[in-house]
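step=encode ok
step=design start
structure_in=
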């Protein structure tokens, strides 16, 4: 009877040990798989563009200068459908150039297809400013942190449009809330 009890205890201990080890491995894999990795350039500045809407000489081109707008495929040619951009295009729709009552810094987020280039454009009459185009990360997100004073914003109402491009496709989304810059 004692031998049987020892055998059962040994099997139970072995089974419990295996369960604990497997649970530890599963937790490790889950944590590694869900880790958020920042993009290589999480903070960029806004790049003003020409005030002439027909002059594109200063305009940032999505996918240019180190931005990969075409994700690599494994030897096959496939068409990846581009998602329309979404997200928090500006963290504060009513900033003040004076920094009071709110700070002059903004955070912007663009969500679209992973590997696509994304930029955010601000338009007031003929004046256009835009956040530098960025390639989205593996989750399809690009982030910016910037300052309205350094970007050269003037008081007034600005229309916000996010633009994403991938493999010759372009999608735009306009923010329904205007960007109202106060003095």
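sequence_out=
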């Amino acid at each position: 009877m004692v031998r049987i009890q020892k055998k059962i205890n040994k099997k139970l201990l072995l089974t419990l040990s295996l369960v604990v080890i497997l649970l530890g491995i599963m937790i490790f894999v889950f944590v590694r798989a869900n880790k958020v990795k920042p993009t290589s350039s999480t903070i960029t500045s806004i790049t003003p563009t020409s005030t002439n809407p027909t002059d594109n000489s200063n305009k940032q081109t999505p996918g240019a200068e180190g931005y990969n707008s075409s994700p690599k495929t494994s030897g096959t040619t496939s068409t990846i459908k581009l998602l329309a951009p979404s997200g928090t295009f500006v963290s504060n729709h009513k900033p003040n150039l004076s920094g009071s009552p709110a700070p002059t810094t903004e955070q912007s987020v663009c969500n679209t297809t992973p590997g696509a280039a994304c930029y955010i454009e601000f338009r007031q009459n003929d004046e256009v400013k835009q956040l530098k185009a960025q390639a989205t990360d593996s989750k399809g997100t690009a982030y910016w942190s910037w300052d309205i004073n350094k970007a050269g914003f003037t008081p007034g109402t600005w229309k916000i449009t996010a633009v994403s491009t991938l493999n010759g496709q372009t999608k735009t989304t306009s923010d329904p809330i205007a960007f109202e810059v106060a003095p």
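step=design ok
step=annotate ok -> The first strand starts at residue 46 and ends at 48.
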